[in-house]
């Protein structure tokens, strides 16, 4: 179901830009260059996350390798006032929203329970239970509509999440309430080890029509197409047009997480095929053809990637352990006796190690 007639693409494999009747990209040359820098930095953040996990600095990492265009293009099309609900792989979205990705690494290190203040950049916390954030987003969007806010809510989820009741309930509730929400599905072809073919018999984007709102399939490895399609859906939501489902067809080039071994369930040929379609090379080819490429841009992107990688590495290595009390402090307003006793026992147990070390 890849590359169907319906799929929106602006960039051909060789980077040639094709005009589209509906979806236009109105970005300045500087903004087009900035998109490239962001793609490169996000890829580097991801590589650093995987490396840090392999070196024992993080408990786990969920790579976004290969999904950079889907994330940078969509998040880049939003306004600061819009509200975003991510899943757990949206490191590119976090970076583009302006939340420091060190917060994400802190989360994957187990050194914080949430990550960041959702209100600072209108970015909700990562959601690990699959699909739950779709309902949170629709609730938020309906609230914003009642408040009369000119704001769109965007929710990110995977192909696997479309098999959850929550996601389908969210589609229905959004349609009935004409909620100003954009459902952004990154179809990366796999839900851990379950391929798309075992999840559904019809394309994801077409599902929206059954609920009563439009859907569109976009080449998720084409950063300009993703940008244009998301911008149109977000504008439509803010103008009172209701929800849109976007299916961004992409590929998870890495493992599901660092605890997963994808060689157990997918072929090297499949990986090679998608590696050839990875998004950054194609975008660089576009910039070259458009006369926007320069050694200076190349250097700037690499320098920003290097400095970001160095900064997150030292931040993780110096990250303090969370206070022990975090385990219980935010569970109950008034913790019951049993939990207090358990925690006191834990404190005495931990104190033995401190004494031994001393
Ligand atoms: C409610 C729930 N069920 C099961 C899981 C275990 N689980 C974690 S990731 C995942 C697959 C999700 O696939 P997809 O939505 O395609 O997202 P991707 O990981 O590909 O980004 C599952 C089943 C979970 N986290 N939450
Ligand atoms: Mg998936």
Task: Summarize the helices and strands and which ones pair or pack.
Elements: H1 29-54, H2 68-76, E1 83-85, H3 91-97, H4 102-109, H5 132-146, E2 153-158, H6 165-176, E3 181-187, E4 190-191, E5 194-195, H7 207-211, E6 215-219, H8 223-238, E7 244-249, H9 268-275, H10 279-289, H11 295-317, H12 326-329, H13 337-357
Parallel strand pairs: 1-2, 2-3, 3-7, 6-7
Antiparallel strand pairs: 4-5
Helix pairs in contact: 1-2, 1-3, 1-10, 1-11, 2-3, 2-8, 5-6
Structure characterization notes:
It is built from 13 helices and seven strands. The protein has helices spanning 29-54, 68-76, 91-97, 102-109, 132-146, 165-176, 207-211, 223-238, 268-275, 279-289, 295-317, 326-329, 337-357, and strands at residues 83-85, 153-158, 181-187, 190-191, 194-195, 215-219, 244-249. The strands form two sheets. Strands 1-2-3-7-6 form a five-stranded parallel sheet, with helices on both faces. The chain is globular. The mean pLDDT is 95. Magnesium ion binds at residues 158-160, 188, 190-191.
Mean pLDDT: 95
Q: Which band does the percent of strand residues land in?
A: 5-15%
The rounded distance between the terminal residues' Cα atoms is 62 Å
Give me the Rg, rounded: 21 Å
Can you list the strand order of the major beta sheet? 1-2-3-7-6
Overall outline: globular
**Treating each run of at least 4 consecutive H or I residues as one helix, how many helices?**
13
